[in-house]
Write a sequence for this structure.
């Protein structure tokens, strides 16, 4: 079945440490892939997107993600975590060319320790 | 307005009552989506409106759920005879009309938190 899987519902890092949030997908067609961030009591904000151009995608707030077709992955990284990065992160994909709706992963809550 | 707005921000209702949730998309956006975010879970697609085309209702979980979009702008999601499992945050998103194979970013509203007692 076509799906999006995020490994780790909670990730905790120290301020200044590398952030790595994992996302894998299953799709029968070339996917469009996205990372969204959700701060408490707010809607989702797009961090970055992959739509079949460059495989290394840079987004806002210093985040980037790399599309690896062979691994069906689209992991999100940031070299140095900041306290303000604490939020919930969702990986999403358009897995069906006939539908515009996105399929979301279950989310990863990022904690940043001082 | 500057972004997608939703009302109410919070709704508490009793089991068996009907509720209406409103979404006001970004002006000019012709595509509108409803998603549901249950506790500890990701977002679940409910329904999608694109211009004057028939809506994609494939994500609606039961016939108690319905939605309409009047005048190609504001949308209302209605849940009849609410159940406790309907408790969730209901998110609305809008985007420009996507043509051909192009994909346009979905902008999300802050959501409506529904609690069914």
């Amino acid at each position: 079945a076509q799906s999006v899987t995020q490994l780790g519902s909670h990730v905790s890092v120290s301020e200044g440490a590398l952030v790595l949030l994992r996302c894998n997908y299953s799709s029968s067609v070339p996917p469009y892939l996205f990372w969204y961030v959700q701060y408490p009591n707010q809607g989702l904000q797009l961090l970055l997107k992959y739509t079949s151009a460059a495989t290394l995608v840079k987004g806002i707030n210093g985040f980037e993600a790399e599309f690896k077709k062979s691994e069906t992955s689209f992991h999100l990284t940031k070299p140095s975590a900041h306290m303000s990065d604490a939020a919930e992160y969702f990986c999403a994909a358009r897995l069906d060319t006939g539908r515009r709706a996105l399929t979301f992963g279950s989310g990863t809550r990022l904690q940043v320790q001082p | 307005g500057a972004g997608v707005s939703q009302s109410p921000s919070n709704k508490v209702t009793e089991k068996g009552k009907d509720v209406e949730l409103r979404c006001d998309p970004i002006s000019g956006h012709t595509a509108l989506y409803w998603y549901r975010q249950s506790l500890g879970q990701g977002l679940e697609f409910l329904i999608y409106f694109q211009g004057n085309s028939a809506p994609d209702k494939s994500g609606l979980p039961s016939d108690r759920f319905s939605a309409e979009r009047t005048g190609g702008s504001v949308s209302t999601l209605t849940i009849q005879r609410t159940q406790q499992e309907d408790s969730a945050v209901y998110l609305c998103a809008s985007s420009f009309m996507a043509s051909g194979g192009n994909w346009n970013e979905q902008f999300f509203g802050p959501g409506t938190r529904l609690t069914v007692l």
In short: Chain A has a mean pLDDT of 91.
